[in-house]
Please model this.
Amino acid sequence: MARADLQNALVIDHEIYEASRVDPSLLDPIVRIEGTLPGRAKPFTVFRSYNGPHGAYSEYFTITDKSGREVARSRIRRTTLRGQMFSDQLASLLRDVRLHDGAEHIAHFYINDIEVGSIPVFVEAADGGDARVAAEETFNKALQKGTILWVSVPRPPDRKGRPVGDHTQAAWFVFDDGKVYIFTGPTEQEIPGLVDANEVTLIARSKDLRSAVSTVPATTRIVSTDEDLWASVARAGLGRRLNLPDGDGAYDRWRERCTLVELTPQFHLDDADSGPPVSAAAPAAQAGESNGEAEAKPAKKADDIHVEAQVDQEVFDQLIAEGKSERIARSKAKAAYVRREKARLRAEQENAS
Model:
């Protein structure tokens, strides 16, 4: 069988890759270390594209350090290339890879046990302060581009003293000078426990909703209606909140019926993390295998698209910003996603035929 060729490849920190989907200027092909070297690498994704004659192939990759010692090896994967007119991409999310030094590593790619290409892997220890700056920049960019975020509020133990999971809810917000402001109350996105909480978690997500770009703890403070800050945030909120039922009258309604909570993100550098953690896999990567590796998901067919699969982020954001409940917004956004995705896949199938 004629040999396949490596068209391109990229090894990149997973959090940085997700952040670059919000702000492309943040794209930086590095692998970061949790703490100091030697140490465990933060989750990173290996993207690669192959081109070759149509047929079935076995594929895997390895990563070696400067001495040639192997530090990671993917499982052998059976894959089918579509032909020499196509470039077929694979992606693997790697976790728990231990690196011993910060020198340049090498990723080697194999098809049918033949090395078809290699690329450098750049390693950066995450204890120099850059990670905190990148985390803060990622969070700020996500909020500047988005209309909603998710707020996770701790809940007290139940009557038997057993822990209860946090309450997480989408909310529209005002973002100013690095701080998040949220109106909550009986007439405006009531978030249980937010007013009484000392600290919450803020989650900014990318456009496909499943991928958390940044997860950051934040301290809380109630903004009094007597403060000048309250008035300036309320005026900004009139422009942020879509389709206000009472228009400018919302200003007085918020003053009378709602509480304004100021949330200050805390970008610590602590023991095992140097920035906000990322909670979802890269776009093509799915649930991990037992060896810590996750492989790319095959393309969906039109009949495989279900309402539960994803949501249309723009529709969801708009409905939340209009004051719709998260349940209604999610349901309508899922339906919108299904309609759009099925139409796209049908069009692709018609073009291919």
